[in-house]
Amino acid sequence: MNDSRSFPVRTSHGTGEVDRAQFRHLGHGVIIEPGVLVFHPDTIEIGDHVYVGHYTILKGHHLGSMSIGSGTWIGQPMLQGRAPSVRATSSISSGMRVSPACAEPVEMARKRMT
User: Fold this and answer.
1) What is the pTM for the complete model shown?
2) Mean pLDDT of the chain
C-alpha cells in the first residue's frame, strides 16, 4: 500500500521518571509518592508543602505551563495536564482529570473540599 500523505514525526515523551532537578520550580516540603509520572517537568512549577499521591500523572506541555499552588493536595490516581496551561490551587480529589477545558471543575472541586 502506497500512502503519499505526510505524517508528523512522533517522539516519546520519555519514561516519566521523576527527577526533582528538572522542574521549573519545586517548593519546600513537596512530597511526591512512588509511582508518580512527570512529563515535561521543565514546564511545571510546584509550590511549598504540596502532596502528589501515588500513580498521579503530571503532564506538562511544551507550549505552556502548569502551576500547582502551595498547600495543594493531589489524590491518587490523577491526571493533571494534557494542554498548554493548567493551574491548581487547592485539593484535587482522586480520579479527577484536569485540563484547561476543566478549569471550572477544578475550582468547583476546590470549593467542595473546603
Assistant:
1) 0.67
2) 75
